[in-house]
Amino acid sequence: MIMQNRRDAIYMTSLQEWTNQRRHIMTSLYRKFMDKSFAIGIKLFLLLFCLCCFHFVQADIPFRNHRFDSWTGLEMPKDAIVFVGNSITDMHNWDEAFGSDPRIVNRGNSGALSGEVLQNAMSWLQYHPAKVFLMIGTNDLGSDTSEYAIVKNISALVKLVRKESPQTQLYLQSILPARDQKLRTLQTIQATNKMIRELAEHTPNTTYIDLYPTFLPILDNKVYSLDQLHLTAYGYKLWCDIISPYIGLNSVYPDDAEMLQQDAGLWGSHGMRATYFSLLPIQDDDILFFGDEMVKNGEWAELLHDTHVKNRGTGWGYGGSIALTSAMVDATFPGKTECPKTVLLYTATDDVNGDMDLVEVELKYENLLKQIHNVAPDAQIVVLTLMPTNNNNPRIVEFNNWLQMLAETDSNLKVLE
């Protein structure tokens, strides 16, 4: 569990600050590498690799805290069905998968550990949900936390649920198979699952759901996973089918999801997110919100009290490029005859803060707008101006001014500051 004083100390450190620091370090080390001998260069390369790894580990902490804290301001619906866990839970659009049922809320958090889930449980437990589906532990094992420590945290969470909301039906889902990482192996995953099963069997209103055997193909079949850890749409379709009797709803995924899903030529979390969008249905009164990780992180349907607001944000990683958003648009619309009412767009953070000439960035953005208009000709397009960054990049102001001018010449385009 992360110590509270450490959490407070780093909470205000933004992901952009980490990105800028890493970029500065990388540039400096690269120049030194080119000026020195091969032997010195190798040492610097290894140092650079370690610094990059340090960046990703540290940057993940503010990300998780931001998402945990965002839940404290979200009042859950009556009889809520809550999905709790790490990125494997966080990545999926659970509400849409079960027909945009407003009771279904996502409380997964990328990178989350069992102790953190326990620490932040009251943000959702205070509303006494009807059902809770928990999957946690793979990140703990991947960071050398023992099976016993994981189950101790899960046991404490179960006791908290039973104390604060005794009528809540709790479902403990097995940890999925995953690639080896530190203590995480198939053997330690199965050992942890065995203890989770035993915990469920000895606790009232608690059910164990064994997903493990169904997902063994994760390790060598890209139809299930693109990284041997997280899931494609087909993987989530199988998961939804297993838990459907407990939810009381059928999933909207087609039976032939395995053949129909499209990753838009993307890899990792972006490609897997694209597969969901390729299969999730669109209705003519929907509002599709495309953008980067900042879009993906928002529970927009909850915030706006409208189940027609649907998240089309990318996978994780600060910033968003126009090209990546374009690929998500490509994945979303093929084979669908329905046109959403509105398309919201927040993108170009990477492009504007990068080295590309701003005129070229604007041209790429205009092409993206044309792409959206071609696939959703009746949709109102609403673009959001970019938020400032800690380095006060003047290009952001210039780009936002250009967006305003562009909207003045296009009656189908609106800009939100």
What portion of residues belong to β-strands? 5-15%
Q: What are the segments in which pLDDT stays under 50 over at least 5 consecutive residues?
A: 1-59
The rough form would be described as globular
Determine the fraction of residues in helical runs and give it as a percent range.
40-55%
Give the structural class.
Answer: alpha/beta
Number of strands: 10
Main sheet record: 5 strands, parallel
Distance between the termini: 38 Å
Radius of gyration: 22 Å
The ordered H/E elements are HHHEHHEHHEHHEHEHHHEHHEHEHHEHE
Total of DSSP H or I helical runs spanning 4+ residues: 19
Q: What value does the average pLDDT take?
A: 87
Strand order of the largest sheet: 2-1-3-4-5
Assembly category: single chain
What does this structure look like?
With 417 residues, the protein is α/β, with parallel strands linked by helices. The protein is built from 19 helices and ten strands. The chain has helices at 4-10, 15-35, 38-70, 87-90, 94-97, 114-119, 122-125, 138-142, 147-164, 186-201, 233-247, 257-260, 268-279, 293-296, 300-304, 322-332, 349-353, 358-375, 394-408, and strands at 81-85, 104-108, 131-135, 169-173, 206-209, 287-291, 309-313, 342-346, 380-384, 413-416. The strands form two sheets. A five-stranded parallel beta sheet has the order 2-1-3-4-5. A five-stranded parallel beta sheet has the order 7-6-8-9-10. Helix 13 runs parallel beside helix 16 and helix 16 packs parallel to helix 18 (358-375). 40% of the residues are buried. Residues 1-59 have low confidence and may be disordered.
